[in-house]
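Practice problem: predict the structure.
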Amino acid sequence: MDIKQIQDLIRFVSKSGVNEVSIEQENFKITIKTNEAPTYVNASLQAPQPLAAAAAPQPSLPAAPAVEVAPVADTSNLITVRSPMIGTFYRSSSPDKPLFANVGDEIGTGTILCIIEAMKLFNEIESEVSGRIVKILVDNASPVEYDQPLFLVEPK
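Answer:
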């Protein structure tokens, strides 16, 4: 990421109401935390280390709270629709409008499933598969990350 992308990401996070965003790439990790106080950014660029060298101690980050995961039914035949961007997930175009997609709905290629707001732009997310929606994995008006699963679809 270059400095411009980081600045844009900080602006987006501060306006979106998200409390924390972490992005980790091969040699780059950034965590942006916000609250009502100013935005704080922790970033570190880590050079790859030789296999024989001892790993340098890394600063400890607060541990994430433990989340209990319920057993999941077999989803091997399901297709996961993922978020193409970071932003805020909306199931309808406005609170008084009908939802784009519900569990059990039959969808086709090009069917609008949701909207993701990113930097004041509302992006319609269209289905790339035909089938039936089995599960919606994100709550309305929730922040989503790039490549986060949004829907499970049973293909036709």
